Amino acid sequence: MLRAVVFDLWGTLMAERRELFPERARVRYEGVRPLLERHGILVTQDEFTQFHLASNRTLSRLQEHGRDVSAEDRARHVIYQMRPGAADRLTAEDVAEFIEAYAGSILHSMPALLEGAAEAVEEARRRGLRVGLISNTGVAGGRHLRQVIAHHGLLEAFDSLVFSDEHRRSKPHPAVFDAALADLGVTPGEAVFVGDTPRYDVGPPRRLGWWVVQVGDRDDGDPPAHRRVPGAGDLFEALEELGLLGGR
Length: 248
Prior knowledge:
The structure is a single chain. This protein folds into two domains: 4-16 and 112-241, HAD superfamily/HAD-like (Rossmann fold, 3-Layer(aba) Sandwich), CATH 3.40.50.1000; 18-108. It is 48% helix and 12% strand. It has helices at residues 21-38, 45-64, 71-82, 84-89, 92-102, 117-126, 142-151, 164-167, 174-184, 198-207, 235-241; strands at 4-7, 14-15, 112-113, 130-135, 160-163, 191-195, 211-215, 227-229. The strands form two sheets. The chain has a six-stranded parallel β-sheet with strand order 5-4-1-6-7-8, with helices on both faces. The chain has a two-stranded antiparallel sheet with strand order 2-3. Helix 10 links the parallel strand 6 (191-195) and strand 7 (211-215). Helix 2 packs across helix 3 (71-82) and helix 3 (71-82) packs across helix 5. It is elongated, with a radius of gyration of 19 Å. 42% of the residues are buried.
């Protein structure tokens, strides 16, 4: 019998609003510029954006192999792109200041909840299921993503939040799925994972013995999901079809 629902974040519950990216880029640059200048790093916004993107590309490749870095190491990595020696001289206070400006820029242009996302999370709670989330992180790590989720009124709905920067492991690594199960006190056969990306959200949990519902119209995972739905709002119809809800 199903005891827990665990969601992916991006593309399943939430999406970026790309029209706000230019403003976020400006806020990010203006936020980090004082620290950079104190360390003798003088770059334009366009130059900083290129260094930021180069760092993102490198760390994204790391995530493809199931690994991730902390928010602190990500901050040092961005600065390393501009001046390697400066990255080595950063104090803990410098790093914290950089993270607040760099990662905190997401709070100035909030991502949007996808249609049906809040209802799916709330329905899981209403049915007495444990509720979790596993998310690979990027510029914004777990600390700031919690604030985004709180902004949408859903933070208290989750019994477990597993963010890759905090675990140094990312989907598709089994460790992040195991961490969620441990938090929730359930076995793989008692949990369903709900996500949109085959490589990260479908094949890995299925191979670990989870039930899987895939959101959206991307290619099938390997192995494929047990059910595919247009959006998170259609989740419980799929779970009914799978016979997982019993008398709930």
